[in-house]
Amino acid sequence: EYVNINRLFNHVLDRFDMMIQSADQFEKKYTIKREITNRQIWMEIDTDKMIQVFDNIMNNALKYSPEGGVINCSLKETHDNVIISITDEGMGIPKKDLPHIFDRFYRVDKARARSMGGTGLGLAISKEAIEKHNGKIWANSIEGEGTTFYILLPYVPYEEDDWE
Ligand code: ATP
Ligand code: MG
């Protein structure tokens, strides 16, 4: 499908914003900030899969930020890529675990993870989906400070895009 990825990302974030505003469980303690380019970026993507990826990373950002905080979401373009990043102020991921978080069923600190629910498949599925789009996904994290997930997608801008 040929879709506007800015709009798709904004839709997902709108939904999370509404969830945070309405659900008692979140106690409105999370703030989503956005830095999304105004330039319309049209890409050939599998919409359902891409939504699944955004959903999982946003869900993780909330789930692993028990104290709440700001979740910074950005979408930028370079001359041949689109870079999406999602940064939370949560518990972070220990250095030794970071290389494994995209493995199937891998969860940091099993005892703690179990109490939070989940299967440990979200990131493995996300990675598979991004690689199907010839993209890359990775994370940087500082334990106790927060985590940033990056998604890089190849993008060749066309002149026609300026007419949108
Ligand atoms: P599922 O997504 O299948 O419901 P899950 O969230 O445990 O379960 P993944 O999304 O694959 O599985 O994440 C794997 C592990 O990486 C998590 O269990 C968690 O330990 C760690 N992790 C993922 N995102 C974050 C984050 N934003 N902050 C801290 N730890 C994270
Ligand atoms: Mg998850």
Automatic annotation (TrEMBL):
Domain Histidine kinase: 1-157
Section of the entire sequence shown: 451 to 614 of 614
Localization per record: Membrane
An MF annotation (GO) of this entry: phosphorelay sensor kinase activity
Alphabetic keyword roster: Coiled coil, Kinase, Membrane, Phosphoprotein, Transferase, Transmembrane, Transmembrane helix, Two-component regulatory system
One CC-aspect GO term: plasma membrane
Species, as recorded: Carnobacterium iners
Main location: membrane
UniProt KW Phosphoprotein keyword: yes
Keyword rRNA-binding: no
Protein's GO biological process: cellular response to phosphate starvation
Name the UniProt record assigns to this protein: histidine kinase
